């Protein structure tokens, strides 16, 4: 039987499957200073993007397995639960937060992998997801900046006929090159579930951690051990 999260993501996936876009880009080089007093050449847009996106194969290699996180079963997230297309949110000032619910970003990730984690010991109803999103470095920085701003300014929004309230920032987990964390309450098929997100940027890759309390109650925590294991493995792999 699908979880509440699975049911809503499948529904959203049907809507999102109506279209798709792909991001692409190149890498440029800066001109060297000739030694004259002419103004230094400006970096090209491609150079300003910094690190290139990782490939899907690299993301897959960097994704945690059960060997990396003791006490958890780790499985692939079904493709129909990670739609490829952004669905408009109301108000639009909450779009980045809404997109991240589906592991989406603007600009689009060039590759994504996702894993579902199940604790072998805890019975508190917490569902865990992890996603690795390949971006150009400049785009990854923009996504984190948008999430940081919107988690502070966006209190509630509607997305694919579902409501999300109580959006508020949480303590920065302090991982990778930069990170942001926030919580909200989702109203799915009349049931309210507290959810927590932590998003870490490591170079050009976004590492997304999602926790939902399927039993309701207080906002769940994303286990620090899981976050640290994934970020460490990513940084050692690439």
From TrEMBL:
Stretches for region Disordered: 23-52
Low complexity compositional bias, start-end: 37-47
Region forming the signal peptide: 1-22
Keywords (A to Z) from UniProt: Signal
Entry annotated with the keyword Signal: yes
Name of the protein: Lipoprotein
């Amino acid at each position: 039987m699908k979880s509440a999260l699975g049911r809503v993501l499948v529904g959203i996936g049907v809507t999102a499957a109506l279209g798709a876009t792909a991001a692409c880009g190149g890498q440029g080089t800066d001109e060297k200073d000739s030694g004259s007093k002419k103004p230094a050449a400006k970096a090209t847009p491609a150079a300003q993007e910094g690190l290139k996106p990782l490939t899907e194969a690299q993301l897959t290699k960097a994704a945690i397995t059960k060997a990396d996180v003791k006490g958890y079963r780790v499985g692939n997230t079904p493709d129909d639960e990670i739609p490829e297309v952004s669905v408009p949110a109301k108000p639009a000032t909450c779009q980045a937060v809404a997109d991240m619910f589906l592991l989406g970003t603007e600009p689009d990730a060039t590759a994504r992998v996702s894993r579902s984690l199940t604790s072998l010991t805890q019975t508190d109803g917490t569902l865990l997801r992890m996603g690795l999103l390949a971006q150009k470095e400049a785009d990854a920085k923009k996504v984190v900046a948008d999430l940081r701003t919107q988690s502070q300014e966006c209190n509630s929004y509607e997305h694919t006929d579902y409501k999300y309230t109580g959006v508020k920032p949480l303590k920065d987990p302090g991982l990778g090159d930069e990170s942001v964390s926030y919580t909200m309450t989702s109203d799915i098929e009349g049931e309210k579930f507290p959810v927590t997100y932590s998003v870490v940027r490591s170079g050009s890759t976004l590492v997304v951690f999602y926790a939902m309390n399927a039993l309701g109650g207080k906002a769940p925590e994303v286990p620090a051990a899981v976050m640290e294991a994934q970020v460490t493995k990513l940084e050692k792999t690439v």
